[in-house]
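Box 4.2: Ligand-aware structure prediction
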Amino acid sequence: ESLEDPLRLLATFCSEEHLDRLKEIKNPRLWRDIAEVALVARPASIYVNTGSDEDKDYIRKRALENREEYPTVHPMHTVHFDGPKDLARDKGNTRILYPGGRQVPLINTFDRDAGLTEIGKLFRGVMSGKEMFVSFYLYGPRYSKLSLYGVQITDSAYVAHSEEILYRNGYRDFVEKGEELEYMLFIHSAGERDENGWSKNVENRRIFIDLEGNSVYSVNTQYAGNTVGLKKLALRLAVYKGYREVWLAEHMFIVGVKGRGGRISYFTGAYPAGCGKTSTAMIADTVVGDDLAIIHAVNGEARAVNPEVGMFGIIDDVNPRDDPEIYSILVNPSAEVIFSNVLLMEDGNVWWRGKPGEPKKGINYAGEWWPGKKDENGKEILPSHPNARFTVSIRHLSKLDPRIDDPEGVPVSGFIFGGRDPSTLPPVLEAFDWKHGIVTMGASLESERTAAVLGQVGVMELNPYAILDFLPISVGAFTALHFEFEKKLARSPKIFSVNYFLREDGKFLAEKRDKIVWLKWMEQRVHGEAQAIETPVGYIPTYEDLREIFARELGKEFKEDLYEKMFTIRVKGFLEKIERVTKIYSTIPDTPREFFEIMDKQTQ
Ligand code: PEP
Ligand code: NA
Ligand code: MN
């Protein structure tokens, strides 16, 4: 069968109505791409999703019929289970395809030809008997020069359902743009599924990122971090495109902080897992995004859009006291929610750690569950998995920023890099300038391994820009890109580092709610309204300014001896950090020479 007449080929898979939907998009390359997948994967039928209410309902219904999702007491809430071996991103099998399999330190690469051959084999007939969904999405606001486009092909109704919640459906944009439209292509199959509905061949799980083809292939997995194309798979393609065109795709939230006279200043923030990213986003005054940012230089100004309109968040320990905003959305029967890998109890209610009440008999990520159930090693099985998640529209947030859909994006006043550091970094620190911040805060971002025993000084792990897991190029090249990006700016955002985890005698020096104080200080700094003390590692706040902000924001007296403990520059710790980080970068290609100069200067 030939791809020369893709519509004729597609007519053998699609009903007339769905073929017409494809014909509406006058883009022969797209028809060929879809036909090629169908030709190899051999689905029983193709469903072309236009994002209409009928299509959304159908996809949801199919997810329930396929047992990819289960109903709960609330019609708008469903539960998905990934199975015990498919509960997180698979780093080992997620590989960047490079011609010749070029080795890049810290990046998991693989030979492109060998990778595409392997994928071809794994996809052969993989969708037989199944329905293939084709969906079209925007990766950013409609009619924005900052936005990208993506096509998702999948045999999982759960993946399509997730994307309908998390992204803006772009069918009509594809129709309007026709042939000129450039898109990322995501091809996924859950593979054969067992009697529980879990992917059966997880040992053949593969997530291959083809930079040259602007495509990602994912097979034998269901976990959203591995399968939902526009989430972390698109991030790799976007980073690569940005690298070539000099703009930034970042693993950052975008939030607004209110200042004098009610003005809003926007900050983007990158934090490795477990360092306070979500809680910072939720404590800010407005939220544009909780996870991803696309940042361009527009007329000399850094402007950011959120490519998403939903959250795929960790639900473990979300409770009414600490996370009132998220919690209230998750228990709101009229909000559409997909819960994944929580406990679905016999009475049709869901339970996760943090939800009031006791977990009762039901099913979870490992099958049937009852209190006290043990695994084959005699270890108790948790009712809800630590990486259990919720998928929900960001539009339910009461603090949603009104500019979420602004095609111009929001102006970025500051970048924040947040790590978990028990012993060295002060709660907040401002870089001397862009390059100093990029090098000593972004590229040098570390976090204490979260498994570290409390009280013990943990092992520090480098996670530059909190994006290491999603980086398709060397982190040296990514740093050089940030230097290049600055050349396009008339005024660059200020750069800050934050650390909520500084401890003394095993006790945290800052309280959880203090986060708002550091944000407000940064906001004032951006407008030249707060003082700072110059130290060898950057600017720190004055005691007087912080005392004033603590009183105003939290009605709390800020003691001078606490200030001294928090903001004493721990020289030894900084020197050790520079040494650790420089050692790693000295092995990484494309690291700009200036990186080492700035680190040397810092040491001096
Ligand atoms: C994930 O881990 O599955 C994921 C989507 O990324 P993150 O760790 O940023 O939530
Ligand atoms: Na490597
Ligand atoms: Mn993330």
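In the box above, the bound molecule is manganese (II) ion. The longest helix spans residues 229-245.
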